[in-house]
Amino acid sequence: MTSIIRIALICLSALTIIIADSMIKKISMGQTFSDVLKDPRMIPVYVLYLLQIFLAVPIFLHEGELAIYANLFIVFYGIFSVVFGVYFFRENLSIMQMLGIGLGLIGAVLMGS
């Protein structure tokens, strides 16, 4: 498996999780934990989590390293979570938080190289 395909799978894996997490946030507003679990809108969330597992398996079958996968996953998940939080949930970031995100991304890139 080429590194481009591996990175694309990791990126898609992180995207499926942040979409699922965002859906949980929307569904859970004003509900109890048990109500959220029983909500029929959670079915796509469960499917997305299952899809993420299927995206990760080929990486490890082709000798993907857990440390590299985890770091790249965190980078992509971090980017997507900031974009989704700001764009869909109108969350604000302070200068210090933006700096922390940037440093975290730099650290993850250094870990993956």
Topology order in helix (H) and strand (E) letters: HHHHH
Q: Biggest sheet: strands, sense, closure?
A: none
Shape field: flat
Give the count of structural domains: 1
How many β strands by DSSP?
0
Give the low-pLDDT segments.
none
The first-to-last residue Cα distance is: 18 Å
The average pLDDT score comes to 87
Task: State which percent range the strand residues make up.
Answer: under 5%
Determine the structural class based on helices, strands and strand pairing: mainly alpha
The number of helices is 5
Task: Describe this entry's structure for a reader.
With 113 residues, the protein is mainly alpha-helical. It has one domain. Helix content is 82%, strand content 0%. Helix 1 runs antiparallel to helix 3, helix 1 packs across helix 4 and helix 4 packs antiparallel against helix 5. The longest helix has 26 residues. The chain starts with a helix and ends with a helix.
